[in-house]
Design brief:
Helix content: 10-25%
Largest sheet: 5 strands, mixed
Structural class: mainly beta
Order of helices and strands: EEEEEEEEEEEEEHEHHEEEHE
Mean pLDDT: 90
Strand order of the largest sheet: 7-1-2-12-11
Distance between the termini: 64 Å
Length: 276
């Protein structure tokens, strides 16, 4: 018996419908395209965390809900090991889909993780000519536009201020500050990266909590946060992103151990590890 030849993924596309204002009952199709027939074995489900096939390590993806999409007898690379469907991690400025990341391409099993703004219903169907698997993700909620501030590398490299550039993102009210911060950690889209925008994480892996009280926002970072000697850190992006909201006058940023330099009083504050 001849061995089954794995299918080759040739494209991964998220529809740009909806953009900044999703109407009620709208949907965003996530499309996986293959060379040859449609994969017969596929599995789509919500998971509590994303696990890398082969290594078993956790894969980070930004989202309030995580959807796992798996194809059996499928590859995302050619015989030379080159990825065949494009970027393996992508950020989107869409109401539902925040990020799509590859979590496995191992022993003819191809897996992706999808970070969503909210856990919502979805449906899966297939099309032919070309062969495609579509995951249609519902967006039955209203969104409002907010601004996220990323490092503008051209300005920073030439010393031209401001060092940050604002981009728009759709978030679900009333948790608009949380949504803006969540989208910040997802980073720029592919088009924004082409314009020189970057997210400086300062080795933060995310944030565990955001509180807002009496004009003070408190952000608790995760990961081994450090400035690395740089004068521009994650704080320079978190600050303007949160201060766009009238209810926030000051931003206090904490490290994973819960430390910040000025925890009390009406002032901004960063942990010692973010000092240059």
């Amino acid at each position: 018996m001849l061995p089954i030849r794995p299918l080759i993924a040739t494209a991964m596309v998220v529809s740009a419908t909806g953009l900044l204002a999703a109407p009620a009952q709208a949907a965003q199709p996530l499309v996986f395209e293959f060379r040859g027939r449609v994969p017969a074995q596929r599995d789509v489900r919500y998971v509590s965390r994303l696990i890398a096939d082969g290594s078993g390590q956790t894969v980070n993806a930004v989202g309030s809900a995580l959807l796992q999409v798996r194809f059996d007898q499928a590859d995302g690379h050619n015989r030379h090991g080159k990825v065949t469907y494009g970027l393996t991690r992508r950020t989107y400025a869409l109401p539902g889909v925040i990020q799509v990341v590859n979590t496995g391409d191992f022993e003819a099993t191809l897996t992706f993780g999808v970070g969503l703004a909210k856990r919502v219903p979805y449906r899966v169907y297939t099309l032919t000519r070309p062969s495609r698997v579509i995951v249609d993700i519902a967006t039955p909620y209203r969104t409002v536009p907010v601004r996220d501030y990323f490092l503008n590398t051209a300005n920073y490299n030439t010393g031209r201020r401001p060092y940050t550039t604002a981009v728009q993102r759709p978030v679900i009210p009333p948790a608009t500050a949380f949504g803006a911060l969540q989208r910040l950690f997802a980073g720029p889209t592919q088009a924004e990266r082409a314009q020189g925008l970057r997210f400086v994480s300062s080795k933060a892996t995310g944030f565990s909590k955001l509180t807002v009280k009496k004009g003070v926002a408190r952000v608790y970072l995760t990961g081994r946060v450090t400035s690395g000697g740089s004068t521009f850190t994650i704080a320079d992006q978190i600050g303007p992103t949160l201060k766009q909201f009238p209810s926030i006058k000051w931003v206090k940023i904490y490290d994973a151990a819960g430390h910040t330099e000025h925890p009390a009083g009406p002032s901004d504050s960063i942990p010692q590890s973010l000092e240059p």
